UniProtKB/TrEMBL annotation:
Keywords: Repeat. PPR repeats lie at residues 129-163, 230-264, 331-365, 434-468, 535-565, 637-671. Residues 852-944 form the DYW domain. It comes from the Eukaryota. It holds the Pfam family PPR_2. GO terms for molecular function: RNA binding; zinc ion binding. Coiled coil: none annotated. This is Pentatricopeptide repeat-containing protein. One of its GO terms (biological process) is RNA modification. Belongs to the PPR family. PCMP-H subfamily. PANTHER family: PENTATRICOPEPTIDE REPEAT-CONTAINING PROTEIN.
Length: 944
């Protein structure tokens, strides 16, 4: 108690105390100050403030060396009131005049966000050194007063103080935030002149950070010139490349860092794990995981979170689960990452179960994860049910009022065409609905073909507080898809002009598409030509519209025009590749592939483009190139696998298709309904009836995919090709949904192959009821009757066709030579080389007849004499195209023919004999599959 009184007196009247008391108090003060220094060395801020509180209670103040330490502890702990009280206590003492104390106060107020208080202290300081200037300048930067920081620096220099490393670091931060490249370069020049960046890691790292605001290449150059690098500077460069999306470059820098012998820290590992996740580099990610364990940072929650994401995004869900289970204390980020991993794998049910566990553990689900889950539901076979479960969770957790969640629900129901559910969600959002909510629902109604409701909602929107934007008008335009909608489309165009938004590039593109869809090509072309600065979207839209309108030649012409004005992007190439795929123009497809390889830097890795190339090569007859592209893909998605399975199926390689399906499952890629369509079709074309039926059972029982009409049609085709017509009919009768025309047509085709005219007549009645205007159905039935010699029935059908004004599609074959397509029809003599073609064809026919070829007159479905039948057979379009190929394509190169209809049996036999005669591979793509003729044998093994 006595010490306390004496100490208090000492504080109030220091000059009046006896020397004995001063000595005691001085000894006591040294002890307390020594304690503060000890706690500072241990980085224990709480202990520092506790010690200060004890000192305060007995009336002892820290000295000029420890008082700054107390103020720093206050700043770090956010103890604002304690720091202000300390400031008040020293206000009337000599300590306030100490430059170190003044600097500490400036730093304290700046770090607590009280810049004005810091300025007052700074302006009242009797003595200011470079450290004080730096505290004030750095404080301005911390408080986002960047221009003020630069003005202070100018004042500092005017008062003859030299900037040091701390000053320039703060200035570089300010210049970077202001995007002031010129001033930043001046600071860089100052650093070079004064040697500040040579061996000072902080300055060098600040320079890298500054240039990263403008160009990562310049930052890399600065980094390369640094004579002394450390982990922080390496981290800065790795992070920079990651943030600009150059994930491979970030990983390459990381490897260089290891080679150079630098130690990695938590920051390094966190960024490179994220780069592995984005780039899809699972092997490197696993190696980094091992390195993390060796470095002893495997318990870091941020690192664990990044590892869960990395494994989850790269198809290694089991590894994510193992990591998740190994953590005893989980935070909300870990829970959300694990839920995201389940969602990425399409396991919405498992994700929901984890949501429940998360709630029991006392955590609330992340809105972001809910939104991701709702988006993923669209891709799942059971997605609608899963989406409804997520909605129930949203309501239960009180998130239904969240506009972002509401919009995600709205979008999910819109994607599933559940208009009633979407309208209900919208009604719940009506008071908080934003422009995205209105646009989503309008777009859903337009897509569903509910033009009236879409227009009604659009009119309501105009009356609401939310103004329509260009996307609203684009959504309404999406409902105008035929000539009947042209008047509506024109009125919307007028509204856009009235609202002064008609000049918007996206809207112009939508208007062009609308006019093309409504069969007003003239207006669409005029509108397209009026666009002053056509961007890539405009060009792509017009090219896509021509492709949709089945005008590939105009699409290619427009592509040629575009090349001289705008660089194409991956979407352009995909559009044009679809032309090549449809027309089987392999040479043009190869040119486009070469172009993408040359422009690899611009295109980067684009999975959609890679998949389009695989599809093009597969459908143009070159499975070898399709396999090469597929094997080089860093990431294979469902579309990639589907393209390969479909390709193998078209080429009659059923065993390869099933192997690809098996590899797909091993790769962790989940098949979808399209996968099974391709695999079932592959089995059908290869006669793998039992395998196909097993596959169908697998689809239903293991993958819980509800069969669609297309799957039923595949199974019927599979059974019919295998000769099991009775089983096929029973299968149709057992279908839970009404069979459509494709199912009956598959059965009718089987009747043609196996000449079952009785069943054919029954089936044809059902088929003609469903599609009375499809000439192909009448022709198919006519061919069955003709093959059976029932000419009276054939004549009846031809009369019906004539009376109804129906015409069958003429058979045509074509071949691509140097990217140009040459078309032929039966008996065609319009080609410039016709004389040469017929002369060569006669020679070839004579030669193959000597080797055993006999014209198969059964394939002439006309009631006429044999000589006329032979003459007809001899000039089939396939034979003309093959002959043209023999004349014009150099030896050693396969001759590839394409046909719009199924190849006839006689031409199939001719192809086998010709391939042996001319020692060339002849590839024929007909309406359903490929035939590879080599040395007298066909790849289909005559099963087609």
């Amino acid at each position: 108690m006595e010490i306390s009184v004496l100490s208090s007196s000492l504080h109030q009247q220091p000059g009046l105390l006896p020397s004995r008391v001063s000595t005691t108090a001085g000894h006591e003060s040294k002890h307390w100050n020594s304690l503060i220094k000890q706690h500072t060395r241990l980085k224990d801020d709480t202990a520092i403030l506790t010690t200060y509180n004890q000192m305060e209670s007995i009336g002892i103040l820290p000295d000029h060396t420890t008082l700054p330490l107390v103020l720093k502890a206050c700043a770090r702990l956010g103890a604002l009131e304690k720091g202000k009280m300390l400031h008040n206590h020293i206000g009337n003492t000599h300590l306030i005049d100490d430059v170190r104390v003044g600097t500490a106060l400036v730093d304290f107020y700046c770090k607590c966000g009280f810049l004005e208080d810091a300025r007052l202290v700074f302006d009242e300081m009797n003595e200011i050194d470079v450290v004080a200037w730096n505290a004030m300048i750095s404080g301005c930067v911390r408080c986002c007063e960047y221009e003020e920081a630069m003005l202070l620096c100018s004042r500092m220099q005017e008062e003859s103080f030299r900037c040091n490393s701390v000053t320039v670091v703060a200035l570089l931060l300010a210049c970077g935030e202001l995007l002031d490249l010129r001033s930043g370069k001046e600071v860089h020049g100052y650093c070079l002149r004064n040697g500040l960046s040579d061996f000072n890691h902080h300055v060098a790292t600040a320079l890298i950070g500054f240039y990263l605001n403008f160009d990562v290449t310049i930052a890399a150059h600065v980094f390369a010139l640094m004579p002394s690098k450390n982990t922080v500077s390496w981290n800065a460069m790795i992070t920079a490349y990651f943030e600009v999306g150059e994930y491979l470059k970030a990983l390459q820098f990381f490897v260089q860092m290891l080679i150079a012998g630098f130690e990695c820290d938590n920051v390094t590992m966190l960024v490179v794990l994220q780069a592995c996740t984005e780039y899809g580099s699972l092997d490197l990610g696993r190696q980094i995981h091992q390195l993390i364990i060796k470095c002893g940072i495997s318990k870091d929650m941020y690192i664990i979170n990044a590892l869960i994401n990395m494994y989850g995004n790269n198809g290694m869900l089991r590894s994510s689960c193992d990591l998740f289970e190994s953590i005893s204390t989980k935070d909300v980020a870990i829970w959300n990452s694990m839920i995201s991993a389940y969602l990425n794998d399409g396991l919405v049910v498992e994700a929901l179960a984890l949501f429940t566990k998360m709630q029991i553990a006392g955590f609330t689900g992340d809105v972001r994860v809910i939104i991701v889950g709702l988006r993923l539901c669209v891709q799942l076979p059971t997605g609608l049910g899963d989406g409804k479960s997520l909605q129930a969770y949203v309501i239960k957790s009180g998130m239904e009022r969240n506009m972002h969640v509401g919009n995600a629900l709205l979008s999910m129901y819109a994607e599933f065409n559940c208009i009633d559910a979407a309208l209900k969600v919208f009604q719940g959002l009506i008071d908080a609905a934003d422009v995205l909510s209105w646009n989503t629902l309008i777009n859903a109604l337009a897509r569903k073909g509910l033009k009236g409701q879409a227009l009604e909602l659009f009119n309501k929107m105009k009356e609401s507080e939310v103004s329509p934007n260009t996307h609203t008008i684009i959504s309404i335009l999406a409902s105008c898809k035929d000539e009947i909608s042209l008047i509506l489309g024109r009125s919307i165009h007028g509204y856009a002009i009235k609202c002064s938004v008609a000049g918007d590039p996206l809207l112009n593109t939508a208007l062009t598409e609308m006019y093309m869809n409504c069969n007003d090509e003239a207006t669409a072309t005029k509108l397209f030509e009026r666009i002053q600065d056509k961007d890539i979207v405009s060009w792509n839209s017009m090219i896509g519209s021509y492709i949709k309108a089945d005008q590939a030649h105009k699409a290619l012409f427009l592509f040629d025009s575009m090349m001289s004005k705008v660089d194409p992007n991956s979407i352009t190439i995909i559009h044009v590749l679809s032309c090549c795929t449809k027309s089987a123009n392999l040479p043009l497809g190869q040119l486009l592939h070469a172009y993408t390889v040359r422009r690899q830097f611009s295109f980067g890795f684009d999975s959609s483009l890679a998949n389009a190339l695989i599809t093009m090569y597969a459908r143009c007859g070159d499975m070898h190139c399709a396999e090469k592209i597929f094997d080089t893909l860093p990431r294979k998605n469902t579309v990639s696998w589907n393209a390969m399975i479909a390709g193998y199926g078209m080429h009659g390689r059923g065993a390869n298709a099933l192997l690809a399906f098996s590899n797909m499952l091993e790769d962790g890629c989940k098949p979808n309904s399209i996968t099974f369509v391709s695999a079932l079709s592959a089995c059908s074309h290869s006669g793998l009836v039992e395998k196909g039926l097993q596959l169908y059972d697998t689809m239903v029982q293991e993958f819980y995919i509800t069969p669609e009409v297309v799957h039923y049609a595949c199974v019927v085709d599979l059974l019919c090709r295998g000769g099991s017509l009775t089983e096929a009919k029973k299968f149709i009768d057992s279908m839970p949904i009404a069979p459509d025309a494709s199912v009956w047509r598959a059965l009718l085709s089987g009747c043609r192959v196996y000449s079952d005219t009785k069943l054919a007549k029954t089936i044809s009645n059902k088929l003609l009821e469903l599609e009375p205007t499809n000439a192909g159905n009448y022709v198919l039935l006519s061919n069955i009757y003709a093959a059976a010699g029932l000419w009276s029935e054939v004549n009846k059908l031809r009369t019906v066709l004539k009376e109804r004004g129906l015409r069958k599609a003429p058979g045509k074959s074509w071949i691509a030579v140097r990217s140009k397509l040459h078309f032929f029809t039966a008996g065609d003599k319009s080609h410039p080389q016709s004389d040469k073609i017929y002369s060569k064809l006669n020679i070839l026919l004579a030669s193959v007849k000597e080797s055993g070829y006999v014209p198969d007159l059964r394939w002439i479905l006309h009631d006429e004499d044999d000589d006329k039948k032979v003459a007809r057979l001899s000039t089939h379009s396939e034979k003309l195209a093959i002959t043209f190929g023999v004349i014009n394509i150099r030896n050693g190169t396969p001759i590839q023919i394409n046909k719009n209809l199924r190849v006839c049996g006689d031409c199939h036999e001719f192809g086998k004999h010709i391939s042996k005669l001319v020692q060339r591979e002849i590839v024929v793509r007909d309406g359903s599959r490929f035939h590879h003729f080599t040395n007298g044998i066909c790849s289909c093994k005559d099963y087609w």
